[in-house]
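Progress note, sequence design subtask.
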């Protein structure tokens, strides 16, 4: 029988490292969904990371948001500019 483990390390309030090994996908998905809903943050958002680190300016972030306008992800990227 495979053992499952979850490691969670909090580096800053906006950076969380999550390592899943042999975790059931449904359980991992539920965990991610719960965190996103409770915190109002997205997990695995490379555009946000690039923007916060200065690799992507406000206009670049807005272009990415516009390209993803049909999804909640595009709305989330756009909200970063107003927060």
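Output:
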């Amino acid at each position: 029988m495979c053992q499952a483990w979850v490691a969670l390390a909090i580096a800053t309030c906006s950076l969380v490292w999550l390592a899943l090994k042999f975790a059931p996908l449904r359980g991992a998905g539920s965990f991610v969904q719960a965190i996103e809903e409770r915190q109002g943050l997205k997990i695995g958002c490379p555009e946000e990371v690039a923007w916060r680190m200065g690799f992507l300016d406000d206009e670049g972030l807005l272009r990415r948001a516009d390209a993803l306008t049909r999804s909640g992800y595009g709305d989330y990227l756009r909200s970063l500019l107003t927060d």
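Confidence is low (pLDDT under 50) at residues 1-13. Work on this subtask will continue into the next period as scheduled.
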